[in-house]
Amino acid sequence: QQQVKQSPQSLIxxxxxxxxxxxxxxxxxxxxxxxYQQFPGKGPALLIAIRPDVSEKKEGRFxxxxxxxxxxxxxxxxxxxxxxxxxxxxxxxxxxxQLIWGAGTKLIIKP
Amino acid sequence: xxxxxxxxxxxxxxxxxxxxxxxxxxxxxxxxxxxxxxxxKFLKIMFSYNNKELIINETVPNRFxxxxxxxxxxxxxxxxxxxxxxxxxxxxxxxxxxxYEQYFGPGTRLTVT
Lengths: 111, 113
What we know:
- The complex is a heterodimer.
- Helices cover about 0% and strands about 55% of the residues of chain A.
- Chain A contains no helices and 11 strands.
- In chain A, strands 2, 4, 5, 9, 10 and 11 form a 6-stranded mixed β-sheet that branches. A 5-stranded antiparallel β-sheet of chain A has the order 1-3-8-7-6, with no helix packed on it.
- Chain B is mainly β.
């Protein structure tokens, strides 16, 4: 019940296209859903996060869509650029201390 | 100004040795973490300290021991290193409260030969 399932494992998108990564959770006590971005050789960094009181949050080209009834949330990257090539992690939390992480998606944007 | 720093960045050592990785954060955060990232990029929480007190201790071999001398530092000591310990180890910190964001260090790539 603590798991966060992320898909796909890897994704190749043409430059200018839309990248979509999905996550699903079971524990309805989760109240914070972040996405982290990790470039090779670097630590993960927070990209965007959402709480379950809203269904969508947008920051620039990045949007989180949240479906509380389906217990799913997704990251959409509009107008994907080669610089977006990275590994993306979804996560969920219900307290101050512990994030439950998805397995990661390696995104490659082809020029 | 580096927010979360780790030393060393690379560590190559032989099986059976003991090694330490140091972590420091200058963000004034109360909570610090150690993660292990394997070759498939999976992030596994190992330990978490809040104000020098251990609050998360996942199933990790006893050979791994965290030490928090103060709120800004969380070191990881590993005894009797094994081949399977080869991974990238990340330190992170967070403020807690309503701000759940975790800030990660650059990672330490440990290779055990």
